[in-house]
Design brief:
The structure is a homodimer of 455-residue chains. The first copy, chain A, is an alpha+beta fold. In chain A, 37% of the residues lie in helices and 20% in strands. Chains A and B meet through strand 9, helix 7, helix 8 and helix 15 of A and strand 9, helix 7, helix 8 and helix 15 of B.
Chain lengths: 455, 455
């Protein structure tokens, strides 16, 4: 332990090595429930690539595990410390190195906060789409590690689609450059993509070349009330089948609507079973919303309200953004699931979650990136009640089993971490797991990078 | 050898095992120049996943190398036979298994021809964008193996972005399922993406879940004549910097224009140094073309001609599509390069190619997916002239060196195969190559899958 700290100091400034146990304890975990966190030996806060290399060389020399961290807003425990590890926080590497409107790329360090980058590129008429709920806190490095999504994915895709190239410090401290800054490239296996969603198990991302898009027009939002989740899902399917390209297509169930009203007194319609929000950032969003409104009515919507302007649109989005915070007040604890099913299976998924809530006598609020089939059932329970906590955990698992049975995945955008480790093997199957382990072994033969995560 | 054929017959119908040497010789190579091809021991044409598994089990048992093939329209030698190998042709596995307009996916076997799929999905109002020049012949399996691109990539991206999930027969005959049919998913490392562009070195793709898009409106094309490549490239940069989203942005140099005129008497303007074609498939393409036309004029275009209708647009695209065939008539042989540079480096790339043509006293025609910075310099030479052939090869290499020096890649969409093997190592560097080899080893420990390709 003393040797570890001494060696780290050889290549890091004093203020970049934290050993005070109260301080290091505050780096122990991310925002996942039901995920164990150990006690880190030390927290390091490098500012340069060379310093990260020094940390990894030290870790390899002394065989100390390393847990990379961004803003710790993750929901799967992927950033949780293990006992005696080095927590490698990348938050001080937070420079935007370049924004190029012609090549439509940004080059950034991993600690850049998502919202900071989004605003910086917007100033140049550009757009970095991935927008996880935690976008004001979460870092690009964390987004890459978890493969983060957001509201815009139905039109613009997830983080993976915006990562063109990477610089990565390997477990042994060597520097790997992957990918490109060109629009296209097929030189060798796509190692860049391998790092996205790898939760820091393959290497430490220290620089990223990100693709940007031209800034779209401001979006306009519509709200539609449905008498059942099935009717709302039928509308979603029809909207997508007709070739519409909404910039957002979100669903909230009654439990969620009530929770949001309780929190923010927004006057959302509590008599409705499912509220659908659709948005367009097209040249003529009002026309697109009108067409989508008609599809909603045909699918059984009792009320269709297009926002008249940006302010009204913003209010509707605000309601959606408050969903998680609102549901967190329902019990004393929450577990957020992240099951993504084929769009055609959205209705049975949502109905199945309602049945699971009934079976376990739990409040499970559900909001969904409906256009993607990506549901977030949020199990609300009393964390101090052992029986209710056990039922919460069981219901959480049953939701994943349902998602897999419907041809879906256990995680659309939150990742595996510790929380869904056992389930990953069920989704991938033995052949898949064997190959994934093999790949991990290639990058991290000593097993020092975020051990115990993923599988 | 006799044992190999006998064992193959145990799991394959007689007509699926070809041993006639005249017949098997016709499967020896793809369309790449300067790439050696060996003599296959046997060609197999399985129709089912089980038959592919049988082939791979046999190959593993007898330690016989396997070269997977689609339509052999590749341009890098990736499908060339090696001596004594099993050529595994997937062209008989050509069923479209499913097209789902709600989930926006198609499920296909690898032997489906690109154009067949494109037409089938178009009938349902859907769009499968990747459109390599060989789209009437090439197969989806081959597109996945090479990571194929096309004209539409500037707006719609390459093959990789449309592959959601795969079924793959591994070297030892086991079946691996990767990825998903959902819109999103981050369960484990992205092995799906690893197979795209892997040139059959990691496994045999036997089924693919492909993402589809809604069919866009028909595109309208504009042609602009420029007095220099630099002026045309300045226009390209300006078009992209202003946030336009052309569905196609192509450049042809004088050598190419003349060759097309010689072939098809199309009356293209031979006095121009660079012809730029831009297209839009937006709701109001005429307005977008007008805006882009103004940018072209400001950048120095001497003539800007928007097509009046679909027929005129088609004629302009026809000229671009004829480029390669036309240049093939300039010499007796051609080498097609595929260097992709950042958009901002397109002008020095094109000027550099012109200088290389002059230095080596060769005709090098250049057309480019200019919006992507992806150039196709086409070296035309007399294949019977040893000195000229040597100069052609040298100029080809010098073009790649220039591309790398400008921050580009040796291959934007054609792949590495045999042709660019030595260059791949230069682009990836020693750390990158070591990891890529490690990954290959995980999937193919005996080195039986397309040995000698890539690296």
């Amino acid at each position: 332990m003393r040797e570890l700290i001494e060696r780290l100091h050889e290549g890091l400034p004093a203020e970049a090595v934290l050993t005070d146990r109260d301080v290091t304890a505050s780096y122990a975990h991310d925002m996942a429930s039901f995920s164990e966190a150990g006690t880190p030996a030390v927290v390091v806060l490098p500012r340069t690539v060379e310093q990260v290399q020094h940390v990894m060389r030290t870790a390899t020399a002394l065989r100390v595990p390393v847990v990379p961290q961004g803003a710790r807003t993750g929901l799967s425990g992927a950033a949780n410390a293990s006992d005696g590890c080095i927590v490698l926080s990348l938050v001080k590497m937070d420079r935007i190195l370049e924004i190029d409107p012609v090549d439509r790329v940004a080059v950034v360090e991993p600690g850049v906060v998502n919202a900071v980058l989004s605003r910086a590129v917007a100033e140049q008429g550009l757009y970095y789409p991935p927008d996880p709920s935690s976008w004001e806190q979460c870092t690009i490095g964390g987004n890459i590690g978890t493969g983060a999504g957001g509201l815009c994915c139905v039109k613009y895709g997830v983080t993976a689609e915006y990562v063109l190239g990477l610089e990565v410090v390997l477990a042994d401290g060597r520097l790997l450059t992957t990918g490109r800054r060109t629009a296209k490239g097929v030189a060798g296996y796509d190692l860049t993509r391998l790092f996205v969603g790898a939760e820091g198990t393959l290497g430490i991302v220290v620089r990223a070349v990100l693709a940007l898009r031209p800034a779209p027009p401001r979006q306009l939002v519509l709200a539609a009330e449905f008498p059942s989740a099935a009717a709302a899902c039928a509308a979603v399917c029809e909207i997508m089948a007709r070739g519409h390209a909404p910039s957002l297509l979100e669903l909230m169930d009654t439990t969620t609507i009530r929770a949001v009203n309780d929190l923010a007194h927004m006057g959302l319609p509590e008599t409705t079973e499912a509220l659908l929000l659709a948005a367009f950032d097209t040249p003529d969003p009002a026309a697109d919303l009108a067409a989508v409104g008609e599809l909603c009515t045909a699918a059984g919507a009792t009320q269709v309200v297009p926002a008249e302007d940006a302010a009204e649109s913003e209010l509707l989005l605000q309601a959606r953004r408050l969903a998680l915070v609102a549901l967190e007040r329902v019990g004393t604890a929450t577990m957020i699931d992240d099951v993504c099913v084929p769009r055609t299976k959205l209705a049975p998924m949502i109905e199945g979650v309602a049945a699971i809530a009934q079976k376990y006598e739990l409040a499970i609020g559900l909001c969904a990136h409906a256009g993607d089939g990506n549901t977030h059932p949020i199990v609300c329970f009393d964390g101090a009640d052992a029986d209710e906590s056990a039922r919460a955990r069981e219901s959480f698992d049953e939701i994943m089993a349902l998602g897999l049975a419907l041809g879906g995945t256990i995680t659309g955008e939150h990742g595996v971490g510790l929380l869904k480790k056992d389930w990953l093997a069920r989704e991938l199957g033995p052949v898949g797991v064997e190959l994934q382990r093999g790949v991990r072994q290639v990058f991290d033969p000593l097993g020092l990078l975020n051990p115990g995560k993923l599988f």
